[in-house]
Amino acid sequence: MPNRRATSVVRRGSRYVAVLFLGAAAGWLMMAAGWLPRPSAKSASFPDPLATPAERYAWSAQPTPVFPIPPYARFLEDVVIVLDPGHGGRGNRPNWKRGPTGLREAEVNLRVAQFLRDFLAAAGADVVMTRDRDVYLDADENADVRKRINLANELGADLFLSIHHNASDSAEANYTTLFYHRSADHSPASLCAARHLLTGLDDALRLERHLDCPLLNDTLVARRSGFAVLRLAQVPAVLAESSFHSNPAEEQRLRDPVYNRREAYGHFLGLARWAQAGLPSVTLVSPDDGHVGRGGQVIVALDDGVSRRRSWGHETVKILRDSLTLYCAGEAVPFHVELDQGQVTVTLPRRLEPGAHYLYVDFETIFGQHVLHPWIAITVGAGP
User: Fold this and answer.
1) Taking Cα atoms as reference points, which of 263, 130, 258 lies closest to residue 198?
2) Strand residues in the chain grouped as ranges (E)
3) How far apart (Å, rounded) are the C-alpha atoms in residues 136 and 148?
4) What are the Cα distances from residue 105, in Å, to 99, 165, 195, 216?
5) Separation between Cα atoms, residue 275 and residue 127, nearest integer Å
């Protein structure tokens, strides 16, 4: 005869196992639904964050896709940013800017830009898209480029960002590059934005390869005159080649909207850090109408982009005195600066021809930022 006590224990054990199984299943379902927290990083499925050597972590392993708006993104409020998703509206061309299995660069550019637009709008930025669907602005490619950058010029945008993905004859190529126009001196403010964008993309995409110098002059590609979309810019302008759609593995990642949103978040964090560092400006104080005689004086207010926040230490000077650069009609002009007053007095050359001119005023701040719009329009009269 079977042992009743043993049988009872077996039955109780079976019920206990069943309850454990159902409880575990319910627990996992609740975790999946977000009702319970997931296991901590110390569980068996994760490396121990205290004991695992740094070299044991894979850099390319993507973290959990979460995209919070950081507190410092508030400095993007009212900043005017024009987003330019490259190469729209030409999808009927066979093999034109496509990956190995046909993924179109233009559609990836657009998805990333749309995600980025939403991040920026949530932070209060004033965002304008050169296109929000798969279209071109003009059937002629040169005219299309002019219309895209003219949108930023007419708005007097604080930044024009053209979003692209690269291609190469080498299937292994895959890295991030940020392009600026012509030379390092052409638009220092563009370089400031590019450096922050590069850092954000590096952190977000976690590509295995990084160029020794990923901040590049556009004449390295377009040797005669650089990229037209940067050459024609009258505002800070940067072109990002975030990764290579010609790389088979990267092409598959670029098909994934979550990966596209990761990239957009990298752009966003870069721009938020750029704005956090302050966006310097200059303003004509006197003469207020911009009309001045030859040899006359012009007073310009210098705003470092940070002191006006009135936070701790706001009264300290944040402009590097030796970085001040002023010229008019192609030549340096004498000036007297009072940094504690935040202004500079410029004496114009007597030999300046009467008519419209631009006074260039730039400086560097303690954060390495430069003036977004350094050109001030003045009109020189015929008399003294």
Assistant:
1) 263
2) 80-85, 126-129, 159-166, 177-180, 215-217, 237-244, 281-286, 291-293, 297-303, 325-328, 331-332, 335-338, 343-347, 355-362, 375-381
3) 9
4) 7, 6, 24, 21
5) 14
Tokens 């279209």, located at residue: 135
Of the pLDDT bands very low, low, confident and very high (cuts 50, 70, 90), residue 14 is very low
Tokens of 239: 């072109």
* Residue 15 buriedness (CB in 10 A; 0-12 / 13-18 / 19+): exposed
For residue 315 the two structure tokens come to 């009264």
**pTM above threshold 0.70:** yes
Contact status, residue 201 vs residue 274, Cβ threshold 8 Å: no
User: pLDDT, tens digit, for every residue of 321-347?
Assistant: 999 999 999 999 999 999 999 999 999
Q: Which domains does the chain have, with CATH numbers?
A: 71-276 (3.40.630.40), 281-381 (2.60.40.1220)
For residues 237 and 44, which has the higher predicted lDDT (pLDDT)? 237
